[in-house]
């Protein structure tokens, strides 16, 4: 006897729940592949995947998620998923910004392939979310993926949870995700074959991966601060020496731990009394400290060099920060004590046991980073043309504009750039000329470093990929087409 309708609904529901509940990157991909196989869904059918999945998974609990995603997909900018129907995109990097961009492009109807060099999401560190990012993620069903998402006044999430949630949403809307695939370089189309010949492709590691045959017309660098795509000059902002320390402690979720108040960065930056007392009592000299309670107890602080030398964290004083912070010049034990002492003082000694969480390398999760030099790309996008094939190249996230962690701007500005990039790609698909497209993109990019949670539009419900819904007093023509001619690269790669 065949299965009844109810049995099929329940089986599909169970398979989908397994996917929703998966807690790792590998586990999610595996549950997704089982789901697709059992329900006979074709994940490479990017156009029809979401509706086939919706038709196959109909148990009561999932309806709210479909409702949210349908609402999002109904934004007029997506033209019912047909705005970029013939666009093929490749995204390098499965960090929050790579996934967020991928989701937008899939909603526009593009074919989207994302490659990620790792197969684990292991960053405990916690990202601050601006109110609009919280709304944006809620609208994508964040709470269905992670029940604890921004409950009450919480405005942060660990990087790993955010990646996991966005990976799941990306898969649902038809993004093709390949992990353990590392971008090596862009391959030009052969000049002599013209438009009939192969188009733009990439060389990846492992070299024989099927992605090396994929031809695309848009490539997006979302591979973090060490962006690997050629053609983008980096601007350096050199400030005064800024050494940031991040530390994660185990959160056992006890009542005592729950009571301890978080330290929001914005409030603490100006709290002189606190920092003076900290210095007097412990010898630790900080410029700021942030504490978020998440999967871990997460602290990020900017420490003054002299106190790190005095406390034996940095062994020898060198002028060059690279030498100063080289692992051979850092006493790891002293660093562990320094961060623990600061965390203890900052929380008024109320956290019962400050045991370090373990990081990706099996070590206590503490790290020290140099923020003296911050990088930003000079430009956000460019167009290459070779053998009659045009390629739109863009950067998003940390590759575009590096954030200062204690201010926690990475994800918020990163998502704005993801939307702006999606808007540009929509224009590209509609046949807008390259120079008009690039000049508009550069005009928007000029706004990005100045954006704050306060000066962007407060009408979050109205946010779409259209920049006019997000930036008040928008001037999208402040960069003129003649100023971006150098970003149209016709011929050999530089
Ligand atoms: P990322 O999150 O860096 O993601 C880039 C992705 O690209 C990674 O998954 C990487 O594995 C992948 N990748 C890199 N090269 C390749 C390649 N060649 N091929 C394929 N894939 C590739 N911000 C804070 O505000 N506070 C913090 O405490 C904090 N801690 C951080 C700790 C670490 C170790 C790192 C790397 C970043 C941290 N950040 C922190 C920055 C924050 O993670 C980013 O601002 C945010 O995640 C958005 O970045 P993104 O998606 O642009 O890039």
From TrEMBL:
Source domain of life: Eukaryota
Subcellular location field: Cytoplasm; Nucleus
Similarity comment: family membership: Belongs to the Mical family.
Protein name according to UniProt: F-actin monooxygenase
Native species: Carassius auratus
Taxon lineage: Eukaryota, Metazoa, Chordata, Craniata, Vertebrata
């Amino acid at each position: 006897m065949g299965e009844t309708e109810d049995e099929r609904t329940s089986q599909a529901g169970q398979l989908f729940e397994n996917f929703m509940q998966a807690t790792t990157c590998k586990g999610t991909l595996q549950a997704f592949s089982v789901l697709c196989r059992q329900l006979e869904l074709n994940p490479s059918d990017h156009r029809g995947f979401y509706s086939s999945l919706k038709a196959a998974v109909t148990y009561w609990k999932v309806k709210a998620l479909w409702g949210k995603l349908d609402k999002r997909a109904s934004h007029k900018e997506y033209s019912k998923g047909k705005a970029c129907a013939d666009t093929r995109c490749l995204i390098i990097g499965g960090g929050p910004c790579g996934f967020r961009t991928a989701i937008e492009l899939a909603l526009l109807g593009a074919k989207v392939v994302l490659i990620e060099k790792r197969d684990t999401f292991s960053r405990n560190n916690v990202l601050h979310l601006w109110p609009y990012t919280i709304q944006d993620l809620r609208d994508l069903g964040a709470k269905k993926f992670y029940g604890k998402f921004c409950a009450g006044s919480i405005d942060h999430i660990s990087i790993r949870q955010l990646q996991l949630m966005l990976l799941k949403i990306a898969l649902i809307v038809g993004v093709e995700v390949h992990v353990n695939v590392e971008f090596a370089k862009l391959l030009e189309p052969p000049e002599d074959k013209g438009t009939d010949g192969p188009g733009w492709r990439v060389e990846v590691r492992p070299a024989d991966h099927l992605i090396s045959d994929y031809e695309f017309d848009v490539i997006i660098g979302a591979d973090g601060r060490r962006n690997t795509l050629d053609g983008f000059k980096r601007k350096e902002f050199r400030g005064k020496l800024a050494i940031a320390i991040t530390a994660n402690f185990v959160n056992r979720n006890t009542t005592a731990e729950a009571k301890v108040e978080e330290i929001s960065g914005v409030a603490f930056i100006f709290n002189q009394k606190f920092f003076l007392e900290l210095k007097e009592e412990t010898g630790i000299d900080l410029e700021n400290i942030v504490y978020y309670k998440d999967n871990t107890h997460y602290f990020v602080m900017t420490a003054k060099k002299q106190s790190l030398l005095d406390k034996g964290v940095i062994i020898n004083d060198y002028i060059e920060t690279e030498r100063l912070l080289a692992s051979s010049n850092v006493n790891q034990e002293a660093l562990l004590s320094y961060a623990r002492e600061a965390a203890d003082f900052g929380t008024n000694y109320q956290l019962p046991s400050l045991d370090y969480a373990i990081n990706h390398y099996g070590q206590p999760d503490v790290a020290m980073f140099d923020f003296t030099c911050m990088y930003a790309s000079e430009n956000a996008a460019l167009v290459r043309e070779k053998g009659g094939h045009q390629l739109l190249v863009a950067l998003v996230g940390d590759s575009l504009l590096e954030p200062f962690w204690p201010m926690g701007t990475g994800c918020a500005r990163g998502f704005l750039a993801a939307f702006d990039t999606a808007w540009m790609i929509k224009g590209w698909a509609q046949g807008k000329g390259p120079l008009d497209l690039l000049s508009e993109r550069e005009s928007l990019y000029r706004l990005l470093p100045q954006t704050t949670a306060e000066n962007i539009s407060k009408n979050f419900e109205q946010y779409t990929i259209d920049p006019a819904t997000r930036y008040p007093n928008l001037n999208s023509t402040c960069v003129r087409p003649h100023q971006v001619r150098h970003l149209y690269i016709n011929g050999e790669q530089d």
